[in-house]
Amino acid sequence: MPTTEEIQAKLMETICAVQRDTGESEPTLTIKSCPMKDLKGFDSPLGVVVTGLVAIGLGIEIPLELNVFVDDNKRLLTIEESAKLICSVVKKRGASK
What is the pTM assigned to this prediction? Predict the structure, then answer.
């Protein structure tokens, strides 16, 4: 199972690639960045794409219904918080592919 730090790194790498591929400028990200708030054009559909690419890249399973960029109270999450959420879900599910 990947560490929180590995998930953070993969999230940042993937978000940068997706932003670039969609014609947006490549962002400078930190673990405190909040993609849904800080990045032009980054919305829920792109969040789903990023989540799927991160899961594939790390060889883990992330439930399709889980929005890793927004919590249950609709609060937008930072990359650090998103990584912790993914790590928690993967641990609970024992979801390595």
Answer: 0.91
